[in-house]
Structures are given as C-alpha cells and as structure tokens.
Specification:
302 residues, 19% strand, alpha/beta, globular, 7-stranded parallel sheet, 38% helix, Rossmann fold, 11 helices
Length: 302
C-alpha cells in the first residue's frame, strides 16, 4: 500500500510540482486546501478542505508517513500593508501550530514533519557567509521566519522535524525567475539597486530532490539552509540571465525607485543573503545544479 503524505500549501507552483514527483514515487498525497472544489481528486492525490480544527485534522494525519508544510500567504505580488503583514505571519504561524498540535494528539504519529522557512530568516547581511548556525536578522522577513520556525517547537520528539530555509527557487514558468526575465526579455533589464546584494538560489529540481531526500533519509539536521552552494550577487545573476537569453543587461534600477514602487517589500530584492547549505552538504546531499549559469541553461525554454 502507498505511504500517505499530508501536504499544506500543495496547490502553489512548488507544491504542485513536488506532488508530481511524490506520485511517481508511489506516495499517496492528501492536499489540504481552502478551495477543494477547484481541484480533481484521484486515487493518488486527494484534495481536502482546510479546516483548522485539531480533531478534524487528526482524521487525515493519523497514520500518515509524513507532513510537508508549505502553507503561507504570498510574500511577493502585494504591497505589505499592516493588515497584509499580519496575514503573511498568521498564515504561516497559525497553520504550523495547529498542525503540530494535531500531530501531537495522533495515536499513529507520522515519522517526519517537513516544515518550510526561508532565507529571509537572516535579514539583510551584506557579504557575510550565512550557515545554519548564523544569528537571525531583525527586519520583517526575519520576524516572519523566526515565528514560523518557533511554531514547530512544541512538536513531539517522536516525530523527526526537518525545517528547510528556502532561497529563491528558480522555476521555468513561475516565481522569481519569471519576474526577473520580463524586463530582460524586453531589453530593459539590468541590476537592481547596487547589484552587490547576494541572492541565494536553487533550481526547482534540486529543491524537490532535497525534500524527497529528507523524506527517505534519517540523518538530516533539524534546520537546513536550502539553496545551491554558490550564491551570486544580483549583478552576476543579471549578467548570467542576459548571457543565457542573449539580451543586454546594461540598465540599473535604483533602490529608491524599487522602494517607491514596492514599498517595504522591496527588501525581497534589495536584501543580501549569502546563505550556504552547510547541513545539506554534510548529510551528503548532492546538488545537480551548483552554478547559476548551468541552472539557467537547463531552465531556459527553447
């Protein structure tokens, strides 16, 4: 019988892609969503309404092999009003807390609890090399990630907890790469701000491979930086995109323009995180795409 995995945030572009790989490995996926009517369940993927009540959640979690917690309101695409900042935090923290509570009360507990965090944990750190043991930052995105990770602290020690702090996931159709490509394809692309800020990135294939690696292996550390071993500055990233897509990248977008247009959320592209996946490498996880240019070449659509 297929092992069952319960997933929150499974209808986003990363979750959807991950589920395809899990199904190919013969897992049965139970996907919590606020709008189950939008999706068609199969014998391998079942969409269930998200209701944040412990007794209700236990019905699906009890006896499952693992939980993969990806839930959270989008960080990009909206200005961060005070109300939306609360939604960003609560959608992550409250979801995680209720999942932990449900797991702790299960009679047949899952073996693994994989819970998302992000490189934003470190705030804006210039060219400082950041490992899992580095101190957290002190801006809004750091606050989000700190509270997100703290929400797992009550999880029973009978369940293996794996937190993965994801960098910028490069995907051919969605996410950061799509946004970075738009101006470059229209010949108006260039560096953002000073261009010296570090971007910690990961190819979507390696992102999925690490999560599956964490499901199958027991020696994974509790907190993991999830990014390729070679972070690059925005200048290097921009030039690499221009080279692969054969477009000029001579323009620069000043920081004050980005802050004017995006408000506080400009920190997503102006903050610098030179994050290194030290724990993943120690666990003998091997990245298929370690260099930005080879990742971009693979992701480029013909």
């Amino acid at each position: 019988m297929s092992k069952k995995i319960v997933i929150t945030g499974g209808t986003g572009f990363l979750g959807t892609s991950l589920i395809e790989d899990l199904v190919n490995l013969d897992y049965k996926c139970i996907v919590f969503t606020r709008s189950p009517e939008k999706y068609t369940s199969t014998d391998k993927v079942e969409y269930i309404e998200w209701i944040p009540q412990t007794d209700y959640l236990i019905q699906s979690i009890n006896g499952c092999f693992a939980i993969i917690n990806l839930a959270g309101a989008p960080i990009a695409g909206k200005r961060w009003s005070d109300d939306y900042k609360k939604e960003i935090i609560n959608s992550r923290v409250e979801t995680t807390k209720i999942l932990v509570e449900a797991v702790n009360q299960c009679s047949e507990k899952p073996e693994k609890f994989l819970s998302s965090s992000a490189s934003g944990y470190f705030g804006n750190r210039g060219d400082e090399i950041l490992t899992e043991s580095s101190a957290p930052g002190d801006n809004f995105l750091a606050e989000v990630c700190i509270k997100w990770e703290q929400a797992t602290e009550e999880l029973t020690k009978k369940v293996q907890l794996v937190i993965f702090r994801t960098g910028i996931v490069l995907h051919p159709d969605n996410g950061a790469l799509e946004q970075l490509l738009k101006p470059i394809k229209w010949y108006v692309g260039g560096s953002l701000g000073t261009g010296n800020q570090y971007f910690c990135w990961i190819h979507v294939a390696d992102w999925k491979r690490f999560l599956i690696f964490a499901l199958l292996k027991n020696g994974i550390g509790q907190k993991n930086n999830l990014c390729a071993p070679n972070p690059v500055t925005n200048n290097v990233l921009t030039k690499a995109i221009g080279k692969v897509y054969k477009r000029p990248t001579l323009l620069k977008v000043p920081s004050f323009i980005l802050k004017l247009v995006l408000g506080e959320s400009a920190s997503m592209v102006l903050d610098s995180q030179r994050m290194i996946p030290e724990k993943a490498l120690e666990a003998n996880f091997r990245f298929e795409y370690e260099l930005i240019e080879e990742a971009l070449i693979d992701l480029k659509k013909v």
